[in-house]
Specification:
It is a single chain. This protein has 406 residues and is of the alpha/beta class. It has helices at residues 18-31, 41-60, 75-86, 101-113, 131-136, 160-170, 254-270, 272-291, 320-331, 343-349, 368-398; strands at residues 5-6, 69-72, 92-96, 117-121, 142-148, 173-177, 196-200, 212-216, 296-298, 310-315, 333-334, 336-338, 357-361. It has two domains: 5-12 and 271-393, Aspartate Aminotransferase, domain 1; 18-269, Type I PLP-dependent aspartate aminotransferase-like (Major domain) (Aspartate Aminotransferase, domain 2, 3-Layer(aba) Sandwich). 40% of the residues lie in helices and 14% in strands. A seven-stranded mixed β-sheet has the order 2-8-7-6-5-3-4, with helices on both faces. A four-stranded antiparallel β-sheet has the order 9-10-13-12, with helices on one face. It has a two-stranded parallel ribbon with strand order 1-11.
Amino acid sequence: MEKLIYLDNAATTFPKPECVYRAMDTFYRQFGVNPGRSGYDLCMEAGEVVDDTRKLLTRLFNGKDPNRLCFTYNSTDALNLIISGTLRPGDHAITTTVEHNSVLRPLYHRSIYDDVEVDYVPCDAAGFVDPDEIKRRFTSRTRLVIVNHASNVIGTIQPVADIGRYCREAGIVFALDASQSAGMIPIDLEAQCLDLVAFTGHKSLLGPTGIGGLYVREGVEVRHSRAGGTGVRSAVRTHLDEYPFRLEYGTINAMGVAGLRAGVQWLLEQGIDRVHAREMELAAILRDGLAAIDGVTLYCQDSLENHIAVMIFNVDGLEALNTGTMLDVDHDIACRTGLHCAPLVHEHVGTAGIHGAVRFGVGPFNTEADVRTAVGAVEEIARQTRQRTRRFVASAAGSSVPESSH
């Protein structure tokens, strides 16, 4: 494990800051009770950790009311709540081809079971969506526009402020999938005209798995799609309408909230802009190194402007899975291969038919030595593959014996 170079940070950041581990251990040992369910001191202290985290994340997103910051299991959970609680049968929704399955699949289900019409706006060759094309898809039935802020495959950051302005002018709800962007690049509910923000805690917010959430802007409502315990007003037969109880069901992952709070505090102390700038410096070294290797193809990486430190590539003559296995077994480099739960992106860049690509995701604890070692490993794999191909071609040519004449 000490030798491992971890470049799978787009899946989850690893390692976490030491303060995250300590916060979770301390919380469960000292305050590991059910927050908000009773009035004794320990329960109140656990509740304060949860409330403080709501306030911290609300400030991070430039929201106004911490009670409208609702905790979920992850961003997939939050996106399902948004889609199920916003769209009704016969509605029209607009999304893009850079989306993750956490958006694509719930929308597909709504189209099949609830007669919701869904438009998929394609990205251009560089991986960006045109806000004007989204606007052109507006109809009188358009209820929701939902966009992936930063791609988990090609790393492109979409122009969400322009999209949000069009949606606000048209009175259409705009939801942002901030799975990759929260904690990495600015998210501003006011400046970007956002109505709903879905996020997960275990990626760039540097918290643990099993915790995420959504922020619901004032004046926007998400209908109930579940019901259950809230710990308050137990005699009421229906699920409560007020936030955060409206979108929180049962006991939340309080230890996860404690770890998430520590991760966000660490980010704010380091400076989110500084952390992202450092990651992009490493991404530039990685991109330039990979681009210079004979037999390596990069996708949507001609420029790193408006990108996060995520990129995909393939080695000519190799399946992505085989490249990833060699990086792991021979070079102790952890990465992700395949379609990355975003099949439409791979269809767009032409990798869907070849079983996807290899993804590198730089994180806050990677070093320049890590990325240069990764470049060297890919270069060696590409060179070995070229040599094997040449030997195979030479062997095939040598085994071809001319037919004798009789």
